[in-house]
Design brief:
By secondary structure, this protein is mostly helical. It has one domain: MetI-like fold (Orthogonal Bundle), CATH 1.10.3720. The protein contains 10 helices and no strands.
Length: about 220
């Protein structure tokens, strides 16, 4: 089973980066849509939620069109910086980030909307600026919901398959994550390796889901 630890390490790296990027993108977008009123806000919400319901292979195809060597963004990156994201672990990070994005975005928006505006207004009356109100009042009250969304996103990125395979392919040691390694092991008839990889993936996801459940908003401290 020595070969199983390489895809596990790669999966944790890809999921970690995808979760970090969603911390920036999902939380920021969630705060924007929770607090700002503008034309097309709900349409934007629907578009940002699409990765939650769209087949991952379709998302992967869109990414190929966008960042592929002949895509508008991919061609620009190649000609300007000499960067190609296709068949790289960075491409797997982008695919996992987009697939898991709605889990952070929706959780962050709900968490920010649940914060009592009177508490923020009271902080402003006491002389705090907008940045201080966000860091000392809004974020502490919303962090449990945000953290639950981030953990769910990590679990989703850990099990991502379709979009990652479309964008990053299956290169052992470079882009072959756990879920892709399971597929390859089954195709090759390596049942023992497939069973071990499935067990590792399941244990990882269950541990993350249990942690996310304990951080769910509204849970009372000390509740079983």
């Amino acid at each position: 089973m020595d070969g199983a630890w390489v895809p596990l390490a790669l999966t944790l790296k890809v999921a970690g980066w995808a979760t970090f990027l969603n911390l920036l993108l999902g939380v920021g977008t969630g705060f924007l849509l929770a607090r700002k009123r503008f034309f097309g806000r709900e349409l934007l919400d629907a578009v940002l939620t699409l990765p939650m319901v769209m087949p991952p292979t379709v998302l992967g195809y869109y990414l190929l069109v966008l960042i592929g060597r002949r895509g508008p963004l991919g061609e620009w990156l190649q000609s300007t910086f000499g960067i190609s994201l296709i068949f790289t672990w960075q491409g797997a990070v982008i695919a996992s980030t987009i697939v898991a994005f709605p889990l952070v975005f929706k959780a962050a928006r709900a968490a920010f909307e649940s914060v009592d505006p009177q508490l923020e207004q009271a902080a402003r009356v006491l002389g705090l600026g907008e940045a201080a109100v966000f860091l000392r009042v809004t974020l502490p009250l919303a962090w449990r919901g945000i953290m639950a969304g981030l953990l769910l996103a990590f679990a989703r990125a850990t099990g991502e398959f379709g979009a990652t395979l479309m964008v990053a392919g299956s290169i052992p040691g470079k882009t072959q994550t756990l879920s892709i390694a399971v597929y390859e092991a089954v195709q090759a008839g390596q049942d023992d390796l497939a069973n071990f990889l499935v067990l590792v993936t399941s244990v990882t996801c269950i541990a993350v889901l249990l942690t996310a459940g304990r951080l769910a908003p509204g849970r009372v401290a000390g509740q079983a």
